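This follows on from our talk about sequence and fold. Go ahead and set the record down below:
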Amino acid sequence: MCLPFELGMEKGHDASKYAPEDYKEIDFVEFVNLLHARAKLAVIDTREKQDFDSGHVPNAINVPYSGKRVEDSQWEDIRKILDDAAVIVVYGSYWDSNCISMTDFLYEKGYESTHLYRHGWEEWERINNLIKGSEK
């Protein structure tokens, strides 16, 4: 799950620089609505490659982010995708502040339509498993 702002302060993270007015935090329902409504949606998963390979949101691209910077060669590749996107959604893993850092990084780069899926992969997987189980 991406680290919520209020929990970030409890755990000693400096979440104060990530002002909620800079970008929009979205929940599961909002994320699903974006996936269904937007043809030009870019979804970025900030988890490590092995975590991404074990499961990810449909059509997500993996950009492992350490909070420092994106490598220049990698940035050129993802910038092409982001420039074509109307909306960008970033998510990570439980207690992963890297998704917040990546969202902030993209917003500062001028991608003002960047959203943070605040509950990350774990919630996505849990809710989808519940839905699949109820369909049986």
